[in-house]
Amino acid sequence: MEEELKNNPITNSQNGVVVDDEDDDTPTLSLETLAALKEFLAEQNGPPVNAEPEEKEKEKEKKEVALVTEDWRLSQFWYDRDTAETVAHEVLTLSQPSQSQSDFRVACIACPTLYAYLKNFSHDISVQLLEYDKRFEQYGNEFTFYDYNQPEELPLEMKRAFHVVVADPPYLSKECLEKVTQTISFLTRPGESYLLLLTGEVQRDRAAELMSLRPCGFRPRHSSKLGNEFRLFTNYDPGNRLGGWEQED
């Protein structure tokens, strides 16, 4: 699946000048110096209050996203930051033609890193996390328990309801991919859905056979430096994004 991202919170601190009341020679700062100091500290602690929206957004995207510790027994390997951001931005790009992001529904199958980054970038987007690990129940009604061995044991209101489905099957087996394919078919809106599959290179032929997917040039990575080569497959041509579709021989 994906990989753990360590939380790196930005800690704001207050800085000042300690004044000794018993010292008659206590130095004072000019108004110009105080203004310069205030500006410097504001730059150190984040964008100014009157910063342009684009500056604030860039600062927001610099922050790490924290997840629970990955459980290797569940084949959990969180994406590294670059992978999570790249895929999240792709999903948000796909949502742009929609009049409202809240009407544009995204399903994340077994990829909680992507869910967390999507919600960090845009609180308005509608994202549903389908995951076996019940620690993610912390996401409330945006969490749905999912066992790939029961591919269609899902709430009926989720049937054919999603514009984008991103899946990262927990195992690199034919059986697992076949069952996840059933889940994807259950979730996607007929004829108007985008599908992104993150899995091993060994699944290339199966992904093409089961879902007519093609590999992109972008290579997903995990912080745990997994030995298996991972790929990103899509059912649509991403153009210049995601490294484009890999050219067939």
TrEMBL record:
Species annotation: Quercus lobata
This protein's UniProt keywords: Cytoplasm, Methyltransferase, Transferase
Subcellular localization: Cytoplasm
Highest taxon, organism lineage: Eukaryota
Region forming the signal peptide: none
Function: S-adenosyl-L-methionine-dependent protein-lysine N-methyltransferase that methylates elongation factor 1-alpha.
Pfam families: N6-adenineMlase
Lineage, top ranks: Eukaryota, Viridiplantae, Streptophyta, Embryophyta, Tracheophyta
GO molecular function, one term: nucleic acid binding
Protein's GO biological process: methylation
Entry-linked PANTHER family: EEF1A LYSINE METHYLTRANSFERASE 1 (PTHR13200:SF0)
EC number(s) given by UniProt: 2.1.1.-
Location of region: Disordered: 1-26, 42-62
Protein name: Protein-lysine N-methyltransferase LOC115952217
Gene name for this UniProt entry: LOC115952217
